[in-house]
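Look over this today:
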Amino acid sequence: MTLVKLLAVAAALGGAMLIGSGLSAQAGYTVTLAQVGRNVVATGSGTIDLTGLSSAGPGLSGARIFPDGAEIITGPGSEGLLRSDLYTGYTGPTSFGSGGEAAPNSGGSGDIVGIGMFGIDLVVPSGYASGSPLSDTVTYINQAFTSLGVIPGTYVWTWGSGASDDTFTLQIGPAVAVPEPASLTLLGAGLGWLGLLRRGAQRRSPLPGSSMSG
């Protein structure tokens, strides 16, 4: 068996083990906060599964950030508040900095989406269908992480369980890739199988110059 075939077999085994492990591939909704020149840009994308949440009724929402209250809402906002649906029932950080409430000084675009303080008011567009794709962006002009009072890092809110578990992630600044323990275990298992297959192939290969008889 050639090395290419061995790698293909190992990859297939690793994929099968990943599927069988029950690890969730759901990405949830992610907001990235990045310093772009003299501005701070918030960009959100993903989906939200409402199954594990409880409705808190309709509301009016606009883009804003409140680090000390663990609140960030992205999308339109500087022109006025938009009709939205509010949900509760998640857990997560109670702050991502010491900054007070601030509104963007640019228009923003896309869907109105956000997470509110103290475990209440996850914000989605009015009439949002659970699991539908969402995306938005908003810019804080002439602002920096320090002036907004945010602390770089990864902040994750969670809700639901089993097939309906979901997350809202706020990434402030560059993400630091840290392999999950389960991923390392699967990678090690795949490499182990690759080694066994290679040794088996070597034992079956005839020595140079030898002949094989039926």
Residues 3-22+179-202 form one domain.
